[in-house]
Amino acid sequence: MPPSLPRLDVRGLVRAPLDPSRPGLSVQVAAGTCLALLGNRAADLSCLLDTLAGHLPAVAGSIAVDGQDVTALPPGRRGMGLFSVRDPLFAHLTVRQNLAFPLAARGMSRPQAAARVREIMALLGLDGQASRRPADLDAEQAWRVRLGRLLAFAPPVLLLDDPFAALEPEGRRAMRTLLSRLARAQGLTVLLATRDREDALLLGERIGFLSGGTLLQTGTAAELFDRPACDRVATGFGDANSLTGRVEWVEDDQARVRLASGAVMEAMAAEGLEADALCTLCVRPDRIATLFPAGFSAGPFHGRDAADGGDGDVPATLVAVHHMGDHVRLRLRLPDGQEVLVRRPPIQTLAGLSPGRRALLAWQPAHAVAFPFRGELV
Question: pLDDT tens, position by position, for the chain (378 residues)?
Fold first, then answer.
């Protein structure tokens, strides 16, 4: 395989049922890397991986593994293995027999299969579980066996369908660490579909963000956080606050925006932003500075008070304060009723911070992005 050729190359894939408003999906996964697809609907993720694996038909597009078009091939000949909690272990077989099953199905001799099973059990820490049946395993042990059943026949591409969904938080962390270690040690090529952002951040060298089955952006975590392609990526992936405003001017890559609350702020201008048009200004909670001036009385802003901050400051009223351990979460309400979340380091003093306290919010223009308004409030 040429070094520049992706191990998995999906181009213009359209899956059933056909949705004319949804563009075809194109992704590439280099050998030995993990691409994490982060979505908000389990059904969309499962349907996509089932289509790639060949369990559902593709309406259009192509799927190639190591340069070979596998779009029309049956599941067993595509060079892909699918891990899904929808595929349970065989209850009547032991761990050893469960691991050997895919090898026997592919015609491997018994001695070869036995050697490969021993290798997989050692790799996954299952040596002491070989004679046990699935009913006797805990959730983490069963997860290891399901992964081992997939690794046993060493498919070029692993498709992981929300693999940690059935695990408790502690088990999720442990199995995520195990998978990460195995992926590095074995040079695995992985397409991970998940609804958990932490899974995507910890396992994916690159991340694709989906909304409603549509791939909105693919890139590194830093690119999705700092240079989101649209407001849906900014809010859905980066947890950004979304504020409606009108563009006063656009110059180069910077814009001046008058928010619905009356405050005037600057932000980076996204492609397509035009002066005197509605926009959606997105700014992440950890990029907002908060000031609680001693001279501000308690209570919400009214009338001319709403302009007290002037250009570059947004007047707000504190609604709630929560200490989250690694950060302090502040919820504030703007004069027009929109609410903003702010995250501050836990070293910030909470003395005197109670609901009703007035504040000024500010951010650097480079830390906010103004996107063309999509015709809906988000």
Answer: 555 789 999 999 998 776 777 789 999 999 999 999 999 999 999 999 999 999 999 999 999 999 999 999 999 899 999 999 888 899 999 999 999 999 998 899 999 999 999 999 999 999 989 999 999 999 999 999 999 999 999 999 999 999 999 899 999 999 999 999 999 999 999 999 999 999 999 999 999 999 988 999 999 999 999 999 999 999 999 999 999 999 999 998 999 999 999 999 999 999 999 999 999 999 999 999 999 987 665 555 554 454 444 578 999 999 999 989 889 999 999 999 999 999 998 876 677 788 999 999 999 999 999 999 987 544
Torsion, CA 176, CA 181, CA 183, CA 186, rounded to 10: -150
Q: How far, in Å, CA of 22 to CA of 314, rounded?
A: 38
Domain 8-226 matching CATH 3.40.50.300: the answer reads yes
Cβ-Cβ contacts under 8 Å for 339 (sequence gap 6 or more): 319, 331, 332, 333
Domains 8-226 and 240-372 share a fold: no
DSSP state of 78: S
Q: What pTM does this model have?
A: 0.90
For 9, phi then psi, to 5°, come to -130, 105
The domain limits of the chain are: 8-226, 240-372
In whole angstroms, give the CA distance from residue 363 to residue 376.
25
Q: Does domain 240-372 have CATH number 2.40.50.140?
A: yes
| Cβ proximity of 278 and 321 under 8 Å | no
Nearest CA-CA partner of 245 in 264, 232, 226: 264
